Amino acid sequence: MTQDHPAIDPSRPQAAEVAHEWRAADLDPVAERRAERQVAGLFGAATLLILASVLIYGFTDYNATVGVPLLGDVNVINVFMGLTFGLGVFCIGAGAIHWAKKLMPDVEVVEDRHPLTSDEEARAAFAETFAAGVADSGILKRGILRRSLLGAMALFPLPLIVLLRDLGPAPTHGQLNHTIWRAGTRLVTDVTYLPIKAADVPVGGLVNAVPENLPQVEEQDGTLNARAKSVIIVVRLNERDIIAQQGGTPSAPWDYQGILAYSKVCTHVGCPISLYEQRTHHLLCPCHQSTFDLADAGKVVFGPAARNMPQLPITVDAEGYLIARSDFQQPVGPSFWERA
């Protein structure tokens, strides 16, 4: 038994039909062309602004700053690239809205609800309606709007692609494969830059260290890149507890009387590590719990890290201070597709 829709109750107030108000662009060809030019202008402005953001990124000093009220000195690239790219996105949105409000049909269309499963007739009707919507939008006949929109949208992803450069140096440049450690470089305490004597490192102790020339390199470079790659931890084990090292010979081991030096940067995603368990000789990363056995060549014993913690070969100089034998023999820092 089927039930018909209930009849309309004449006692209930019904919505009054509102007379359609024609827009200027609907009646006046001059107004229509003016609106078309406005929309195309917005899309064209978006194109220029997006290109400007890319040029700002490519030709502006990365470390240049500009004074901003209430904020102080801020990075020029951040300010002007953000403004130009943001305004470009705004112009695309504003152009699309202006197009819809001034040039697309504004007649209200009401469609009764229908069963969720459409029959062939309904699908054909949808296809017809869609085709009519495309025709009404004017995207096919208004070539200048179509071309300007496509131009703006084609360039829209360009700044996003350019910003991939900020993810880090390209692996092929070798910038991640070398640090400022060199043979004879003294190990000094981080922050205070005091040289470290082997006799001052107790069994079970841990010291955060950097190369002695780090302050000079940072002053010349103006960045923290050298620190990020060269910072190390120094630990001392009983020599009988050392199972393996990443290199060296019996006459020139990579440790000095049980003192080992490892990179401080986790090989998973680059978090700094100082959580050391003296009894197990394990180094634990606080970010994702990767665990490295410093007594066994810094190998991974737990967690997502895919590579051993890089070991720095060390010895002492004539005054008993710890020095590096060479740079790291493997890249420091997080792994990626070429060093998984």
Report on the architecture of this protein.
The protein has 340 residues and is α+β, with helices and mostly antiparallel strands. The chain has two domains: 24-111 and 119-167, no CATH class; 173-324, Rieske Iron-sulfur Protein (3-layer Sandwich), CATH 2.102.10. Helix content is 33%, strand content 14%. It contains eight helices and 13 strands. It has a five-stranded antiparallel sheet with strand order 3-4-5-6-11. Strand 12 (314-316) and strand 13 form a beta hairpin. Helix 2 (29-59) packs antiparallel against helix 3 and helix 2 runs parallel beside helix 5. It starts with 23 loop residues before the first helix and ends in a 16-residue tail after the last strand. The relative contact order is 0.09.
Oligomer description: single chain
Number of strands: 13
Level-2 CATH architecture of the largest domain: 3-layer Sandwich
User: How much helicity do the residues have?
Assistant: 25-40%
Poorly predicted ranges (pLDDT <50, ≥5 residues)?
A: 1-7
**Strand order, biggest sheet?**
3-4-5-6-11
Radius of gyration: 34 Å
Distance between the termini: 68 Å
Q: What characteristic shape results from the CA principal axes?
A: elongated
Whole-number tally of structural domains? 2
**Fold-level CATH name of the largest domain:** Rieske Iron-sulfur Protein
What is the overall pLDDT average? 87
Q: How many individual helices?
A: 8
